Amino acid sequence: MSLPIAEGVHPCLWTAEQLEKRCQLRTQSRSGPGGQHRNRTASGAFLTFDSGVAEMGPITAEATEQRQQGRNRSMALARMRYLLAVTLRSDSSLHPELNDSDVVSSEAESELRDRYRGSPMKLNEDNVAKPGLLTLVLNDLWCAGGQPSLIAPHWKTSTSKLVNLARSHAPALRLVNQIRKHHSRPPLR
Q1: What pLDDT sits at residue 150?
Q2: Domains and CATH numbers, the chain
Q3: Which residues in the chain land under pLDDT 70?
Q4: Which of 35, 68, 113, 155 is the most buried (most CB within 10 A)?
């Protein structure tokens, strides 16, 4: 199964400032429920990230729910992180435990792996570390052919906790099941 691969450090592991600098911001008024004062100004935020991967094209995340543009920008950035976590893989996933690769993980990746190795992996949707952790687990599952049992020892956790993390974000579970289908394995439920 071929998935788009990010060069270098995965964008989900960048700081908010680094990711925002790489995104193009567009604001726009949107209609919808909320009364006469909703989005009378250009408070909707649309962030576009150029993945640099030709077959993938740009990725866009939007938020228009709030009346304040700053809040919508923050929400759009959080959504961008989740989109990137699911749609883009990185070479950093090819660590020696799963592959015969010489790829060295970034400091941000190592820090995140160390922080959550052995943890229950139950993160709130608003936790800024969740998209990064999801990225690393998805990278590992991609390398392991979608088999949580192969990566559970590396994370020092149970297979069910890894599956629950993927389950907590529906697009992530769909990706894992696509990987499993590619390797002729039954879907996770």
Answers
A1: 95
A2: 11-87 (3.30.160.20), 107-183 (no CATH)
A3: 30-41, 92-105
A4: 155
